Amino acid sequence: MKTQKLTFHCDPSHGWLEVPRADAIALGIADKISRFSHIGGHSLYLEEDCDASLYLDAAKAAGYTLNITERYTDTDSFIRNFDQYSNKVPA
User: Fold this and answer.
1) Are 91 and 25 in contact (CB under 8 A)?
2) Nearest to 84 by CA among 26, 25, 31, 44
3) Which residue among 19, 36, 66, 86 is least enclosed by CB atoms within 10 Å?
4) Running along the chain, 91 residues long, what does each successive block of 10 average in pLDDT?
5) Whole-model pTM?
6) Which CA distances in Å does 72 have to 53, 75, 77, 91?
7) Do the beta carbons of residue 46 and residue 33 sit within 8 Å?
8) Are strands 83-84 and 3-10 parallel, antiparallel or unpaired?
């Protein structure tokens, strides 16, 4: 069983779950993530409407224990400056 500490980032109009890129690959969901998510360094920022739940469901099915911290900002999130996710991004 793996314990994962994650952060949910939220700005006035949207939210993203920050997850390790390696986890998305290991869980077999990297090719299912939409272009509405973002990538920055070793992290994926999964949009809240579909991609975050895709990760959460896969992680729970794999036996992960998830601890999620929420971070809010009153202005546009830094995440909006990252590249949009593409499942063609090399692992």
Assistant:
1) yes
2) 44
3) 86
4) 92 96 95 95 96 97 96 96 80 50
5) 0.92
6) 19, 9, 9, 29
7) yes
8) unpaired
